[in-house]
Amino acid sequence: MHTIWLSGAEWFAVLRIGLGLWWLESWRHKDKKTWFAGGGITWAAGIAAEHRWPPVRTSFERLVKPRPRLMAYLVAYAELALGLGLIVGFLTPIALVAGAVLNLIYLVLMIHDWAEQGQNLMMALVSVTGLLAVSWQSWSLDGALGLFLR
Predict the structure, then answer these.
(1) DSSP the chain
(2) I need a labelling partner for 20 at 20 to 30 A (CA). Which of 1, 94, 120, 124 fits?
(3) Rounded to 5 degrees, what are φ and ψ at 137?
(4) Subcellular localization, per the record (predicted)?
(5) 80 lies in which domain range?
């Protein structure tokens, strides 16, 4: 593939690193004190309680709401791990799949909010593109260590 300036594999690495920075920003901008006290989960519980799809309400009530502190830590540190993993290219295919799943969960929960839908759809699209383009070929620990060869 001929491109301007970088190779195709390097452009996909740029896309992967950019996605990692986006995840890192999702982690960084959280008010950690409020978030880890359950504030983020409390906010999401209000959205889930009025969700138009009953399975979403039920799933949130059974899985997330009874464990607000655990879920707050799980979400925050998943975003941090995704960001760091994608930036350095470590366990990249796993991070790309996990990121796409997390974005789809966010998308389904926030189905009524067009701004959130756009961000989560775009991040999921970049994840799938990075996965299918084998974006860990360039500028990654996976490539340096010989993990996940094509």
Answers:
(1) ---SSS-HHHHHHHHHHHHHHHHHHHHHTS-HHHHHTTHHHHHHHHHHHT-SSHHHHHHIIIIITT-HHHHHHHHHHHHHHHHHHHHHTSSHHHHHHHHHHHHHHHHHHTTT-HHHHHHHHHHHHHHHHHHHTTTTSSSSHHHHHT-S--
(2) 1
(3) -65, -35
(4) Membrane
(5) 69-145
Contact 82, 102 (CB under 8 A): yes
Q: Is residue 74 part of a domain?
A: yes
Q: Which residues of the chain have pLDDT under 50?
A: none
pLDDT at 118: 85
Which residues are within 8 A (CB) of 105 and not within 5 positions of it... i.e. 6 or more apart? none
pLDDT at residue 3 in the model: 74
- Confirm whether 16 is domain-assigned: no
- Asked if residue 25 belongs to a domain, the reply is no
Global pTM value: 0.91
Residue 38 maps to a domain: no
Domain count for the chain: 1
